[in-house]
C-alpha cells in the first residue's frame, strides 16, 4: 500500500479532526444514501443486513427511514491487514498504518 494513492490533505484532516477512520469515510456516498433512502421508503423490510464495516455509517439513515431490524454481519479483519502492511512501511506511512490498525 502506498499513501500516494490517497488524498493526503483529506487523510490528514480526517486523522486530526474525525473519529471515523479515513478508510471508512472514503466509502460514504451521498448518491448511495439517497438511493438507500428511496429503497427504504418504497419497501417494507423486516431486516436490513449490513455486510461489512463500511456500510455502518448509514445506520442512522436506515433507522430514520425504516422500522426494520438492522443486522450487522462482521467479517472484519481490516486491522490485521493494516497491521501487516505497517510492518513493510516506513516513515509517516508506517505511523499512519499502525494508527489505522488499532482495534
Element string (H = helix, E = strand): HHHEHEHH
How do the strands line up in the largest sheet? 1-2
Helix content: 40-55%
Measure the end-to-end span. 19 Å
Q: Report the principal-axis shape.
A: elongated
Main beta sheet, described? 2 strands, parallel
Calculate the mean pLDDT score and round it.
Answer: 83
Structural class: mainly alpha
Strand percent estimate: 5-15%
Number of domains: 1
Q: Count the beta strands.
A: 2
Which stretches are low in confidence, meaning pLDDT under 50 for 5 or more residues running?
A: none
> What's the tally of helices?
6
Radius of gyration from CA coordinates? 16 Å
Structural overview:
- There is one protein chain.
- This protein is mostly helical and 103 residues long.
- It has one domain (3-76).
- Helices cover 53% and strands 10% of the residues.
- The protein contains six helices and two strands.
- The chain has helices at 8-17, 22-25, 30-42, 59-65, 78-88, 91-100, and strands at residues 47-51, 69-73.
- Strands 1-2 form a two-stranded parallel ribbon.
- Helix 5 packs antiparallel against helix 6 (91-100).
- 7% of the residues are buried.
Amino acid at each position: 500500500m502506498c499513501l500516494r494513492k490517497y488524498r493526503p490533505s483529506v487523510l490528514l484532516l480526517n486523522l486530526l479532526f474525525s473519529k471515523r477512520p479515513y478508510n471508512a469515510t472514503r466509502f460514504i456516498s451521498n448518491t448511495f444514501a439517497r438511493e438507500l433512502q428511496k429503497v427504504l421508503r418504497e419497501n417494507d423490510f423486516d431486516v436490513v443486513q449490513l455486510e461489512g464495516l463500511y456500510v455502518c455509517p448509514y445506520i442512522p439513515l436506515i433507522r430514520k427511514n425504516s422500522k426494520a431490524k438492522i443486522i450487522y454481519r462482521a467479517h472484519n479483519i481490516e486491522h490485521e491487514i493494516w497491521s501487516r502492511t505497517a510492518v513493510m512501511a516506513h516513515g509517516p506511512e508506517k505511523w499512519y498504518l499502525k494508527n489505522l490498525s488499532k482495534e
